[in-house]
Every structure is written in structure tokens, then in C-alpha cells.
């Protein structure tokens, strides 16, 4: 069977931990979208692994697949594999030949376009994600499989690179260097192709995954980023360029929707909200210079709110895994979660980080929005309308700081009662049962109520 793990907010919900938790029962873990923009931290045997491309299941000795829906930077891929090897692991990673390759000019153009866009900039990770997906859709991309065939690689580069060079130089007026040099790119990427071939790393992902399922193996489909930054269902244009929602799990893995749909789809929810990047955020607390629209930081915000935001940011370690940028934080946004639950059809929830909110007198939740005098229970389709939504809050009594390691050992009933009330409110509103509750960063600090692979 398959279990699909989907971020239900803005990314950084703790998906890596959930993949890691249920990954024991999985034989293969496949990513279906995104690239090295996806910072995930996995804690295993007391060691912390920070990954951005390699599926987090690979840390636990599972076969890790980068599906056709991914965009792959071979340089990052090999760096991460080499680092894991140096730390004594032997990751088995396969890359879909249909996945698209991130080239150096994609990264350069990502940076240039972000600067040009000003207010419309998404605050990207500048890893070249958007420009690579653009080329995929524009039918001028270079797939991983093309790196294995030098003639095809050269032909593709000769077509596309002059266009990219003209874009950078003539449209944006920038100087270009070796990132736009056909010969340099050809030599470098041909070498990557050789290493991929030597290590037997490329695969026809859909066929491989279906064969494994037919043999009775368990497959986990690991989403990156989150629903509200999905290219179709997110807060466009402040989004990433792929589909983190469960539909992406079919298209981006090569498995049919009937196969993925027979399995489970687990929505990962963080007990509050955090975001790296720009755009509106109705339940935001305080703000972050350069990310919160119109935020100046000099007295514009409410002091109590700023203090609360700093508390949550520090307690939750809300600084980007990849970039180290402080993240914007806010209360849980229920319209955002209802939208996510519908778009992906969650069959279960994993709610993380309730420990971060411990010690507060009161915990608020954006239950609905008020928009032009009406109550909205889900997100409006345009970001402009979303930006005009005012959150209407519900208040919950806070829960105390406790020994979360003990709570994790004792199980769900040991969670402070007020925190359980909060969790059950979320599950009721989303119409999906709680499968797991994260009470700390470690694997053993997650309380498991249900293992989706047990019900096969
Ligand atoms: P890109 O994916 O680098 O193009 O960035 C587009 C938007 O998605 C930006 O707002 C990023 O901050 C956000 N983003 C990309 N990857 C992640 C992630 O793994 N977690 C959270 N936000 C992300």
C-alpha cells in the first residue's frame, strides 16, 4: 500500500519526523515534487541530519526515490549522499529519469527574477526551482535521463542556453559567466550523468514503484513544502512551483490516482503557523523585516504580539533549515487547514509541536475569516482576497510546560487536558482522526495513535 505525507500549511510542519516515524514499516520512500528547496531535519539515534533533497526515509536505510515530479540539482544530490556516507550511512537513492535537472543558469535566473519582481517576489530559496519547472513546462528542460546520453545533452544545451543567456543579458541587463557557458555545462553535467550511471542511480520511477507494490512492499510518498504554497492551491504568486498536495503524489511518482487513493493520506499540521517568504498571513503575530508586507519593525506592531512571536519562534526553532532565515509565525489558521484537508482528502492527521505552545496562558486559533461582512470557513481563491480577510479567533486555555519525554512514553492520555481539547478541536473541524502527536523534535517524542500501515 501507499501512505502519502502532505504538509497542510506553509511547509516546515515537521513532515520529516512523520516520514521517519512511519518509515519503519515502509520499504521505499519516494519524493514526488520540489527539489533542494525542501529543508528537512531528521533526528535519528540522537544524530541530526539536515537534508534538502535526499528523501528523509533514506536516513533509515530505506530505498529513497526522487520521483519524476522532482527537480534535481545533481551537485546537491551528490553532496548530500557523500555527507551521509562520511557519517557512516549508506543511502540507496534512485532518481527518476523523467525528473528535470536544475542547472546553474536556473539558480542565477531565480535570483535575478526575485530582485526584479519586488512586491511580487515570493522570497524564494534561490535554488532555481521555479526556472527549472518553467523550462519543464516550456518543453525546453533537460531531464535526468538526458544526462546519460552525451549527444542528447549537447543538443538540448545548444538549444536552451543561448535563450537563457539572452534573457539574463538582454532582458535583465546582467553579465553572465560559466553558468551560461555550453561547453562548461556539457562537461560538468556529462560527468554527473556518468556518476549516476556508474552508481546505477537512475530509474523509471513509476514502473519501479508499481513493481514494488505488486510484490507486497509498502511505499511512502513524501511531500515537500505545504498546501498553501502549492502552485495551484496555494497563495499564488507567493508559492513554490510544484504540487505538494496529494494529487502531486500521483503525477510526480508515476503511480495512478487509484493506487494512491487506496492508501492513506496524512496531513501534517504544526500546532501554530510558520512561514518563510512573503505574502499575506491573516493570523500572523508580529512580523519579520523583509518578509511581512509593509513591516518596518519600529513600533508598528503590538509589543505583546512581538514578544509572543519571538517566544514561539525561539521555542520552536523557527529559523529556515536551508537558509537560516527567521520564519514568520502566527496562530493556527483553520480556514487554511480546511482547504488543505479538502484538496488532499486527508485520512489522518499528524499534529506537531504542541510542546512549543506550552507555558502560554492562552492559545488562540484563527477559526474563520471575516471577508466583506461574511464569515468564511475556507480560503478564498485569490491572494488579494485572502489578504483582505480578517481572522476571527477562538481562545483555548493554555497548557503547562511538562516533561514531554515522559508524556511521549505514557501516551495520548498523558498530554495535558487543555492541549487535548485543542487537538480534538482541530481533528473535529477537519473531519480526520489524529494519527500522531509530536511533543518534541525526536522520533521517540511522537505519540502514535494509529500506524497507517497496520490497517492493510
Ligand atoms: P522556491 O520553492 O525556492 O521557488 O520558493 C517559493 C516559495 O516557497 C518561497 O516563499 C519559499 O520561502 C517557499 N518554500 C520553498 N521551499 C520551502 C520549504 O521547504 N519550506 C517552507 N517554505 C518553502
Automatic annotation (TrEMBL):
Coiled coil: none
Matches recorded under InterPro entries: Adenylosuccin_syn_GTP-bd, Adenylosuccin_syn_Lys_AS, Adenylosuccinate_synth_dom1, Adenylosuccinate_synth_dom2, Adenylosuccinate_synth_dom3, Adenylosuccinate_synthetase, P-loop_NTPase
Binding residue positions for Mg(2+): 12, 39
Record-level Gene Ontology MF annotations: adenylosuccinate synthase activity; GTP binding; magnesium ion binding
Catalysed reactions, as listed in the record: IMP + L-aspartate + GTP = N(6)-(1,2-dicarboxyethyl)-AMP + GDP + phosphate + 2 H(+)
Metabolic or biological pathway: Purine metabolism; AMP biosynthesis via de novo pathway; AMP from IMP: step 1/2
Co-factor note (free text): Binds 1 Mg(2+) ion per subunit.
Subcellular location: Cytoplasm
Chain residue ranges for the region called Disordered: 283-303
Cofactor: Mg(2+)
Top-rank EC class of the record's enzyme: ligase
Keywords, in A-Z order: Cytoplasm, GTP-binding, Ligase, Magnesium, Metal-binding, Nucleotide-binding, Purine biosynthesis
Record: residues binding substrate: 321-327
Function: Plays an important role in the de novo pathway of purine nucleotide biosynthesis. Catalyzes the first committed step in the biosynthesis of AMP from IMP.
Subunit structure: Homodimer.
The protein's name in its UniProt record: Adenylosuccinate synthetase
The species this protein was found in: Natronoglomus mannanivorans
Origin organism lineage: Archaea, Methanobacteriati, Methanobacteriota, Stenosarchaea group, Halobacteria
Amino acid at each position: 500500500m501507499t501512505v502519502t505525507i502532505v504538509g497542510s500549511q506553509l511547509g516546515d510542519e515537521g513532515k520529516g519526523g512523520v516520514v521517519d516515524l512511519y518509515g519503519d514499516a515502509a520499504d521505499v520512500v519516494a519524493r514526488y515534487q520540489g527539489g533542494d528547496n525542501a529543508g528537512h531535519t531528521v533526528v535519528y539515534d540522537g544524530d541530526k541530519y539536515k537534508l534538502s533533497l535526499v528523501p528523509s526515509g533514506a536516513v533509515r536505510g530505506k530505498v529513497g526515490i526522487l520521483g519524476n515530479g522532482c527537480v534535481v540539482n545533481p551537485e546537491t544530490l551528490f553532496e548530500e549522499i557523500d555527507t551521509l556516507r562520511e557519517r557512516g550511512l549508506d543511502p540507496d537513492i534512485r532518481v527518476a529519469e523523467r525528473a528535470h535537472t536544475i542547472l546553474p543558469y536556473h539558480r542565477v535566473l531565480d535570483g535575478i527574477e526575485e530582485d526584479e519582481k519586488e512586491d511580487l517576489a515570493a522570497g524564494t530559496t534561490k535554488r532555481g526551482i521555479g526556472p527549472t519547472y518553467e523550462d519543464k513546462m516550456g518543453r525546453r528542460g533537460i531531464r535526468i535521463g538526458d544526462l546519460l546520453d552525451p549527444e542528447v545533452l549537447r543538443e538540448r544545451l545548444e538549444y536552451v542556453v543561448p535563450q537563457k543567456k539572452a534573457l539574463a543579458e538582454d532582458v535583465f541587463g546582467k553579465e553572465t559567466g560559466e553558468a551560461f557557458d555550453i561547453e562548461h555545462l556539457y562537461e560538468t553535467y556529462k560527468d554527473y550523468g556518468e556518476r549516476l550511471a556508474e552508481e546505477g542511480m537512475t530509474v523509471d520511477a513509476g514502473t519501479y514503484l508499481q513493481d514494488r507494490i505488486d510484490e507486497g512492499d509498502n511505499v511512502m510518498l513524501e511531500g515537500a513544502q505545504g498546501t498553501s504554497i502549492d502552485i495551484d492551491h496555494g497563495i499564488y504568486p507567493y508559492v513554490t512551483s510544484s504540487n505538494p498536495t496529494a494529487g502531486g503524489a500521483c503525477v510526480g511518482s508515476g503511480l495512478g490516482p487509484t493506487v494512491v487513493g487506496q492508501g492513506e493520506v496524512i496531513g501534517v499540521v504544526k500546532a501554530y503557523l510558520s512561514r518563510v517568504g512573503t505574502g499575506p498571513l491573516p493570523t500572523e503575530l508580529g512580523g519579520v523585516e523583509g518578509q511581512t508586507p509593509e513591516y518596518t519593525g519600529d513600533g508598528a506592531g503590538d509589543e505583546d504580539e512581538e514578544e509572543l512571536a519571538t517566544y514561539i519562534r525561539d521555542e520552536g526553532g523557527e529559523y529556515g533549515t536551508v537558509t537560516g532565515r527567521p520564519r514568520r509565525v502566527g496562530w493556527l489558521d483553520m480556514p487554511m487547514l480546511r482547504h488543505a484537508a479538502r484538496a488532499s482528502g486527508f485520512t489522518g492527521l499528524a499534529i506537531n509541536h504542541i510542546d512549543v505552545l506550552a507555558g502560554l496562558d492562552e492559545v488562540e486559533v484563527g477559526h474563520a475569516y471575516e471577508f466583506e461582512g461574511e464569515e468564511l470557513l475556507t480560503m478564498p481563491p485569490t491572494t488579494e482576497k485572502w489578504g483582505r480577510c480578517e481572522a476571527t479567533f477562538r481562545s483555548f486555555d493554555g497548557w503547562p510546560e511538562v516533561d514531554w519525554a515522559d508524556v511521549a512514553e505514557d501516551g495520548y492520555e498523558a498530554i495535558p487536558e487543555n492541549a487535548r481539547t485543542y487537538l480534538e478541536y482541530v481533528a473535529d473541524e477537519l473531519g480526520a482522526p489524529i494519527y500522531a502527536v509530536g511533543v518534541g523534535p525526536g522520533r521517540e517524542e511522537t505519540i502514535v495513535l494509529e500506524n497507517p500501515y497496520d490497517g492493510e
